[in-house]
Amino acid sequence: MCTFHNFPDCILGWKTNRQHWSGKTTLLDAVAGRLEHKDSFFGEVYVNGRQLKKEQFKDCFSYVPQNDTLLSFLTIQESLTYTALLTRQKCSSNFIKKKVEAVMAELSLSHIADKIIGSRILVGISGGERRRVSIAAQLLQDPMDLVSVDTRSKERELETYSRVQVIVSAYKSSQIFGQVVAAIERTKGTKEPPPIPFKSKDSPSAFSKLWILLRRITRNFCKDKIGIIMRLFQNLLFGLFVAFFLLRLKSDLLKGAVQDRVGLIYQCVSAPPYTGMLNAVALFPPLRAISDQESKDGLYQKWQMLVAYILHFLPFSIISVAIFSIFIYWTVGLYPDAARFGCFFAVVLAAHIVGELLTLVLLGVVQNPNIVQSGVALLNSAGVIVGTGLLRTIEDMPTPFKLLSYLTFQKYSSEVLVVNEFFGLNFTCGGPNTSTAISSMCFISRGAQFIDKNFPDATSHFTTHFLLLYAFLPVLVIIAIVSFKIRDIIISRQ
Q1: What confidence tens digit (pLDDT) does each residue in 356-394 have?
Q2: Overall average pLDDT of the 219-241 stretch
Q3: What's the predicted TM-score (pTM) here?
Q4: Alpha helices per DSSP H over 140-256
Q5: What distance in Å separates the CA atoms of residue 186 and residue 196, rounded to the nearest whole number?
Q6: How far apart are CA 217 and CA 462, in angstroms?
Q7: Taking burial as the number of CB atoms within 10 A of a residue's CB, which of 134, 180, 304, 489 is the most buried?
Q8: How far apart are CA 140 and CA 129, in angstroms?
């Protein structure tokens, strides 16, 4: 059993039923209730003479991990305020403010309360101040004490560990040590020992936590002005290049009327998912690291951070794709109809969101964002090749690839865009003086002929394909939530 009087000795090693010795971090994770695989360690923990159940550990203890996981663009006061909001329900803003101010005063952070946290590329507070902010975040959860060794350098770790040992040795040789041991034994034998000082159980509801997380994410990212500009106009930058390359679509077959439209549709299907992927890879990993930390403290579950991020990026995606669609649709001269423009915008938006959601799915189970980026890019490329029918008609593909195409969102987005643009178009083929040899190249005169030849039944399945495209969104959200549930299991076994 690990009690106060032998705690430093317990830190040196903690033997699990796997028959190996683990270190300080594993012991602290065990006592703080951060080890979800409950059968992998044994021992007893008593507080005020009452034995705690393993599922009660996180409700009573907290400790500050070695790595500081904080949002870069929030100030110290903002960061601690959101943490306090996640721990308390139905508390006035004045109560939260006073609680945060008290903790900041205790850790000498009041004079820098309005400074941003910062990161490696963004100047902010110092490393020591970041450490104190992490400590403050734990103190806001009202835990029974704090024991730590400074691990920022090997020298400091040895120095502070030696200092702890000196204190322990002096304490064990003192008279009060024997009195404490005797008091512990007496307390364990009493019929009604003192109550266990659990953390506050007055935590917000699941919806309130989601709202707090959404506010915190938005406040953090909205302070990155350059980041906001890039997120809103990244699709437009791509559109500028395409518009400059195509200039204006023609209706003459000899001037690329079909080829240019097919090429534009190909780009509108393949590029937006990639920009969505870039957003998720750049923005979500820091949030994932924070959710890993705070979910261990019981503040919320990982999937709640995921859903909050999805709700956050949706308005940015809508605005970014709207800017791109308005520019590219009317600049290059796609079918001049407001309803068809709305359909074009909706398809490109779905493709963009699918790319970001697919990235979130992989970020749940794959730790390295670079691997995720490569994986999503590969999946997107494979979907474009197999599903669009623009490189090779689906009817001409081998049966396995033909069946696989039905699992790609690119199949539905490309067919909807093809029908949306080509249906009702009429083409010309040169002038009255065009030679017979050249005229033989004019194999179609209407857009409907191109659809029937390359995408049979696409016109009759237009609405169905549109609905199937948007069905990918809730399915990927559900899979992403499952992915982060799996992440819980993976992290708990590490």
Answers
A1: 999 999 999 998 999 999 999 999 999 999 988 888 888
A2: 91
A3: 0.71
A4: 154-172, 175-189, 206-221, 225-246
A5: 16
A6: 38
A7: 304
A8: 16
